[in-house]
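S.,

As promised, the adenosine-5'-diphosphate run. Input:
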Amino acid sequence: MRIGLYPGTFDPITIGHVDIIRRASALVDRLVIGVAINRDKGPLFSLEERVSMIEAECARLSDQTGTEIIAHPFENLLIDCAKDVGAQVILRGLRAVADFEYEYQMVGMNRAMDDSIETVFLMAEARHQAVASKLVKEIARLGGDVSKFVTPAVLQALQKKFG
Ligand code: ADP
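Predicted complex:
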């Protein structure tokens, strides 16, 4: 059984994430969405809110793809989380050049800790490439329309947060 781990903060889940989850779920039998607790980053949405938004999106994707997709909060090292969930592969999304430097370092460090877990990078469809949670939150906070970047349920949650 091939198990993949797709980690992130998902604050909140965007259509960029959904795109990557759809692609990732085609590659594995079980996809674990690792939800970083990230207390230091001061997320807008609580862990429970982030997990429940992910679960709502994943239930639909799971039905479409037939792959089991589960949300798994984690606070430890990514490589240890991968071992905890039995993942042989870590899946990451890659946006143009912005993500490259950080991801390059992460792969190097993770490989030094455990060479048996492979990292695979996926690219979202071109029109989903620029979407980032951070920008979505900023636009929503300033009263802009983010309906192109998130699903209707997440849009509603953002509107509730920012009034
Ligand atoms: P963000 O960087 O938007 O705050 P996360 O930290 O939750 O999101 O990202 C989790 C993973 O999803 C990372 O590998 C990130 O590169 C990837 N990702 C996020 N948005 C996109 C996108 N629009 N296209 C491709 N990958 C993405």
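The chain has a mean pLDDT of 95. The longest strand covers residues 30-36.

- D.
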